[in-house]
Design a protein that fits this description.
The complex is a heterodimer. Chain A is mainly α. Chain A is rod-shaped, with a radius of gyration of 24 Å. By secondary structure, chain B is mostly helical. In chain B, 73% of the residues lie in helices and 0% in strands. Chain B is built from seven helices and no strands. In chain B, helix 1 packs antiparallel against helix 7, helix 2 runs parallel beside helix 7 and helix 4 runs antiparallel to helix 6. Chain B is globular, with a radius of gyration of 20 Å. The chains are: A mainly alpha, B mainly alpha. Chains A and B meet through helix 1 of A and helix 1, helix 2, helix 3 and helix 7 of B.
């Protein structure tokens, strides 16, 4: 007789989606944070260069 | 050879098309596996866990950690920072795939074996590899000097990847509860054609996801090095 264990399969698929989904979100957040930090550093460098040239 | 002072460029993708395609492919595989693939008579629906468990294991062990090891060996030889970034990215994405392996396996084990976990050679060595990759990530975070960090990580990465052949052969070398390969074996696959189509579709979809995640993670590593260089210039 075929066992009724569909719940285990559904749980496994949900868990996998959760891990991959959370990882994608973490990558996007880390990239955004780094881009913001980089743009702050570059705008600061541009302002310093302008001040030095003036 | 690239160095800390060499300018780095990180293109900002307007939309990550590869990631979008990969997510769509994985979603289609989910629908095919859960709704349109026959239920195996003896194991029931839990057999469908194979499509996400075995594909994640294959990609983690033979793609991600193999790439980590090859990039690490090449880094030690060529000292190119790009290779270090590839190794770092492959290790982290591989860790995510191994986490899926270690979470989905017990769900299959509980319904088929009656136990969530057993300390057999395949399961234990996979868990050990997971810890080694966690240690690899911690090591990367603990060493500040870029050159030293890359060198130490490369050595640990190569040592960790040496466990992969052992994990592959563990079901042949020891008496284990873990099933023998049903697809990756010298003889013909012991799986009906319809299930094979689902398995190989899942494999393609998850390879696409791996590639998209690897690219995104590599971008982060490049950005982090660029930020570090700018901060060094400012200091």
């Amino acid at each position: 007789m075929t066992p009724d264990n569909g719940g285990f399969a559904t749980a496994a698929y949900l868990l996998a989606a959760l891990v991959y989904g959370a990882y994608v979100v973490s990558l996007k957040l880390r990239e955004r944070r780094l881009r913001e930090r980089l743009s702050r550093l570059e705008s600061h460098a541009t302002a310093s260069n302008r001040a030095a040239g003036a | 050879m690239t160095s800390a002072s060499e300018p780095l460029a990180v293109a900002r993708p307007r939309r990550d098309i590869l990631l979008g395609v990969a997510i769509l492919a994985v979603a289609l595989v989910y629908v095919r596996a859960l709704a349109f693939t026959p239920i195996e008579a003896r194991q029931g629906a839990a057999q469908k866990i194979l499509y996400i468990h075995a594909t994640a294991a294959f990609i983690a062990l033979y793609v991600a950690f193999a790439l980590m090891a090859i990039s690490s060996i090449l880094y030690l030889w060529l000292k190119d920072e790009k290779l270090d970034r590839v190794a770092e990215s492959a290790a982290e994405v591989g860790l995510a795939f191994t986490t899926v392996v270690l979470l989905t396996g017990p769900l299959w084990g509980k319904t088929i074996w009656g136990a969530w976990w057993t300390w057999d050679a395949r399961l234990t060595s996979t868990l050990f590899l997971w810890f080694l990759i966690v240690a690899y990530s911690l090591l990367r975070g603990a060493v500040e000097d870029r050159g030293r960090r890359a060198r130490y990580a490369a050595v640990l990465g190569i040592l960790a990847a040496m466990l992969v052949p052992f994990i592959h052969l563990s079901v042949y070398l020891f008496r284990t509860l873990h099933p023998m390969p049903i697809l990756l074996k010298p003889s013909a696959p012991s799986m009906p054609a319809e299930m094979q189509v689902t398995f190989f579709s899942a494999f393609v979809a998850f390879v696409l996801l791996f590639a998209a995640l690897l690219r995104a993670r590599y971008r982060i590593a490049t950005l982090r090095d660029l930020v570090a260089s700018r901060e060094q210039e400012r200091a």
